[in-house]
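Reopening this ticket.

The earlier resolution said the output was attached, but the attachment link was broken on my side. Pasting everything inline this time so it's all in one place.
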Amino acid sequence: MKNEITIRYTQEMKDAVLVRMMPPNNESVKSISEELGISAQSLYKWRNKARIGGNATPGNGQTSDRWSSEDKFLVVLETYAMNQAELAEYCRKKGLYKEQIDAWRSVWLSANTGEINQTKRLSQELKEEKKRTSEIEKDLRKKEKALAEAAALLLLRKKAGAIWGDLEDE
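Inline output:
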């Protein structure tokens, strides 16, 4: 049986580590783990908990243009109701540019527009394909009937020839 030691960290310690993971620091989980001796699993757990709480915590050492969609979305949510002064302060604090947030916001606001247009286009294409399929099936039924009629005529001609003899020879 394994002996496991559970280490309890104070909320202040967790908050301090999370600040290091958040912008503008964006320190990677690996570097913090190595420096502080806290397991990477614990750091990931703290980061996910912070994300669920609505905080953008990339923690991957990457610049803001390489953040995940989730982190960008959380920044948009955090800043949506801010006025210009609050937004400028937020950007300075997080190491972001207002233009980045504006671009992310416009992407999120227009995200469903493309989906609606695509849905309409696909619906129209489906309608056209159903109509085309219906016409092809109708044409196929006509051809099957004509083929059956031709086969019946050939069969009758053969039987008539067998009964009365070949009329073409006379």
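Reporter confirms the inline version is readable. The chain is about 70% helix and 0% strand. The mean pLDDT is 81.
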